[in-house]
Amino acid sequence: MDVAQVLIDGKWRAADAEGTFHAENPATGKALPLTFPISRWSDCDAALTAAAKAAVELRTIEPTKVAAFLEAYANNIEANVDAIVAAAAEETALAATPRLKDVELPRTTNQLRQAAAAVREQSWRHATLDLEKNIRSCLAPLGPVVVFGPNNFPFAFNGVSGGDFAAAIAAGITVVPIPGANAAITALSASGLPTDAFRFCGFLPPKTTQRRKFLEQLKPETCTLIFYEAPHRILEALEDIAAVMGSREVVLARELTKLHEEFARGKPADLANTLSTRGEFTILISKATVADPVDTPIEDQVTALEKQGMARMDAIKQVAKSRGLSKREVYKIVSE
Known about the structure:
- By secondary structure, the protein is an alpha+beta fold.
- Helices cover 43% and strands 17% of the residues.
């Protein structure tokens, strides 16, 4: 039995498969000669690692070379339009229509050339709205309204997309939100954590050092913290949350509003084995609790913060700030 190989990190190899499946040619109804593997998560993780590595390496390539590649790709499509249309008709068993040749492929080549121009100008680094050059300028003649629908609503909180909306506002175009399902608010409403004050922090940084530093900065926040995280980083994220936040209660929400929706609640160190690591995650962390400094002795206030997992000097710093004292004064009190 011939089983198709997988291409990961530039190399063809046998898949780490948990099963196989057969495919058939929709035009003839006959089985294809190859059997295809159903890869395990190890292959998926390897592919994601390779993709991350490739993304880093891509940034080291001279922009003009990347732009030249994109333009060559567009030229190759245009030179083989008829062959592409014929192959699509054969592989899908759908009748050839003018739309693929006259609309879909030209749109693809146009997007490739726009991407090439963006790479050359480095304009992809910043989301902007140029009413003369940007593709969104087509909205201007239709009226001063830009609408983003339910499926795109979360991107309003994304750094790049948020900048895009800001650019539209700066250009004098009214942005009208039409809210739909939002993972952060949906997860918060069913988390059981306090909802009187919360902070949405976007995606956690991808690397451990950056992630822990980010969490340290947020540690004193007296509100529920909300993050998004990808499935291949969720276990590392929980490990870092445990290291920085200690035993604070954490809620994990997975695949919200979908068939396999799941919630897990507990201490971060205990959650790693409680649910599947597939799907997109929303992480919620309970707020830091600081006793009323007027009624609580300084020593007890510092001790309470330490029990929450805060380092001693960080606890002293926070108590000093809350009471309007210097760190030296607080340190002297707790050291006596």
